[in-house]
Amino acid sequence: MATPLQKARKNPDSVKARILRAARKLFGEYGFHGTTTRMIAKETKIDISTLHYHWGDKGNLYEAVVTDIYDEMGQKLAKIEHKVKGRPLPERIEIAIEVLIDHLFEYPEISNLTLFRYFTKTRDDTDLDIHIPEYISDIAFSMGLSEDKENVPTEAQMKVISMMNSFHNFISGEAFFTKMLEIDHDEYVRRTKETLKFFNIPPFHP
Fold it and tell me: Which residue spans within 42-124 are E strands per DSSP?
């Protein structure tokens, strides 16, 4: 039997899918605790009972949102890995930065929810038990930082975590940093890519 998430993905125009999109946006802006089902229902232009009919409680909807986001990132990373296969490592990193940063700026809730998930107790507080792959080992393997995909050294994982955290922080901090730097969105995106390349590519040059 298909899950609510699978049904939403199958029919993007359905009420279930519209609720999911609204939940992604609001959870990304306000986190789990700052978002209410009433806010999601209002954003979707439905009543609370309809939301609960399609998704159950807020915890179920949050779990679906997180699963949706990490599945989406996994698919994006798989496409990048296929695109960069066989290229020198610095070139692989440069392409990955270009593609991922564009994707994350288009869907900033990915970075916001990732950071919320890392640094809050949302899952514990709501009794959620979400087993979502972080793709850290896969990225490390595709970058050539490990010869074994199943046993990636801690050092390699930490390098990947450092890169991914820098990506997410630039995305989530856009409103603060653009105001501080007095630049617009387009320049901020360009400068973000330049900065990430500056810090992440040289260490991997032979």
Answer: none
The CA–CA distances, whole Å, from 50 to 37, 46, 55 equal 11, 7, 9
CB count within 10 Å of CB 51 equals 24
The CATH classification of domain 4-204, taken from the options 1.10.357.10, 1.10.240.10, 3.40.30.10, 3.30.565.10: 1.10.357.10
The first and second tokens of residue 72, run together, are 């989406």
Poorest-pLDDT segment among 35-44, 138-147, 187-196 = 138-147
Please count the helices (runs of H) and the strands (runs of E) in the chain: 12, 0
Tell me the pTM: 0.85
Task: List, for residues 45-70, the tens digit of each pLDDT value.
Answer: 999 999 999 999 999 999 999 899 98
Q: Are 189 and 105 in contact (CB under 8 A)?
A: yes
Dist CA 49 CA 83 (whole Å): 45
